[in-house]
Amino acid sequence: MGMYIHILVLVLACIAYVLYQKYYVHMYTSIVNKPEKRYDYIIVGAGTAGCVLASRLTEDPNTKVLLIEAGGHMGYFTRIPLTSTAAQQSPYDWSVQTSPQKYSSFGTYSQTQFIPRGKGLGGSSQINFVLHGFGRPEDYERWSRLGFKGWSYNDLKPYFSRAFGTVVSEFDTVDCTGQAYCPGEKAPMKLKVIDEDKELMKVFREASKRYADKYTIFRKATATVQNGVRFQVLDAYLKPALNRPNLHVMLQTQGISVRFDNNTATSLYILKDHRDLDNIFVNKEIIISAGTIKSPQLLISSGIGQRELLRRLRIGPIAENDEVGANFHDHMNMPLYVSIQKPISITLAKVFSVKTAWEYLWEGRGLLAFPPMAAVEYQNSSALMLFSMGSTSERLLRDLSNYRTEVFKEIFPYPNDFSKEGFMFLATCIQPRSRGTVTLKDSSSTIPPVVDPNYLHDYWDVKCVLKALRRAERLIATKPFQDIGAKIHWPRSERCLSFWKYSKDDQTGKVVQKKKKKSKSKSSVKSAPKSTKAKQLKVASPPDEYVECVIRDVAVTGHHAGGTCAGGAVVDDELRVKHVRRLRVVDASVLPAPVSLYPNSVLIAMAEKAADLIKNTHYL
């Protein structure tokens, strides 16, 4: 019976995919194969910022814009909120592999991480977990202290409202009960808060209240979802503009290098389908929105970067700047598996069911209609996210995280039990201090850049994640979690066992009692157990040395890379590249320090402001 259910689900998914490809992908007149020779603006990258900019700049019918994107149309499954990881390490993902890490990633193959970066219309906003947040006000004040002025929380509030109809992180677009005017209705972006009846969220919230203080912030999961599907910048900004005659979009096209005349950007070399090279001229400016890894690569390839690097690559220098490609920052998430006895989590058995498929495809609701995140709790510089998946598939998740096979099983004690109830706490440091680099080993655009995040180089980051894990221990011990049978299963890392005696039986919470020897007396025979018996044991708290070792073993990227064209260092307060003219960078690479967790919504607001700055620029 189970096989027939899986076949039916697959058939339904295939029908949906065919309909998507037939009626959605091939309907826009702005998508062209051959560009004109000159435009007012050229935007490199149709990711989060690129989609916003293309839409806003072409609102003026007299402004001609070319938007180029290295990928194409993304597949149907990127539209489903729960299956965001389906596009990772696929043709829709650059699948950036880092260089071997010195201070982290000891549980991964070659001590490397895979950083997902979207490749196609919508960019990384089409393969992320669609989670919304504006960080914390102090994030923006930190930028100002680092020399990036004009981007404070108050500076961006009008753009939060313009894009989302709100300035808060926990907001539901359609929840306007008792209001005569709903501000989110006219905003392009749409938000959905997790349903109040989700029990894991409520348990987490009640437990958080037990230990809340003035430094505690609890937020229910909020996602950029509408009617059960991902609703990101592609839907909100770019699609409505894709039939404008003054917007041209080229797919499967990369920006190779910017051409300058007296330090003024005048044209862009592009490569179509990896073979057709062309040079497109610009009247006003070129805007690079290629992302944290590709934007510094394009700057370096254009002659903007470190002197010695440009000399070694034999690239003629246009502007020397040692900060190009520096300051790479990213969050790291440390997974902590928690099993529960109450059937309230998301399991793979529930996901791959006819009921789930029916609810989603015909009614736009159910497990597939929202990302698998319940809530997040901030505590000073640490945070805990509750990831609602109880069962883990080694086949689905191991390769995405690049864990070695044995390490994956050490982290998740029930790796292929599709009905196991539970969840993961993802412990993280929201303002990590470690900084890495993006550089080039070859000037060819076909050679991937060298990405060294330098994860956990600063010991403060490790201590920060440790605090989050200790917080998780306290929360699990509270009555709300104990009432659902919550039990922590610490990763059992072989490399770290010298710090803590921790067996496989300790991890699963079971100990096997051996059969007692039979005696000759009848009473002894009668009292002897007939079979092996297991009983639950409480797992002790591991020492800090063990936990720190495990963090360096199994913590993985939070997918929030930024900082490599930092504001104040590479670009000025209006995002113009320093020492040259008519060239800007607008994407996550300009963030001088991280946003506290999810940066995507902040980038949308920043792109809104950037569009205003560009429109108000007077060119001589």
Can you describe this structure?
The protein has about 625 residues and is of the alpha+beta class. It has a single domain (about 1-460, about 555-615), classed as FAD/NAD(P)-binding domain (3-Layer(bba) Sandwich), CATH 3.50.50. Helix 2 (about 50-55) links the parallel strand 1 (about 40-45) and strand 2 (about 65-70). Helix 4 packs across helix 18 and helix 13 packs across helix 17 (about 545-555). The protein starts with a helix and ends in a 5-residue tail after the last helix.
Radius of gyration: 26 Å
Low-confidence stretches: 512-536
Count of discrete alpha- or pi-helical segments spanning 4 or more residues: 18
CATH topology: FAD/NAD(P)-binding domain
What is the H level of CATH, i.e. the homologous superfamily?
Answer: FAD/NAD(P)-binding domain
Tally of DSSP β-strands: 26
The main β sheet shows up as: 7 strands, mixed
Euclidean distance between termini CA atoms: 72 Å
Count of the domains: 1
User: How does the helix and strand content classify structurally?
Assistant: alpha+beta
Under CATH at level 1, the class stands as Alpha Beta
Strand content: 15-25%
- What is the name of the CATH architecture? 3-Layer(bba) Sandwich
Mean pLDDT: 91
Helix content: 25-40%
Tertiary shape? globular
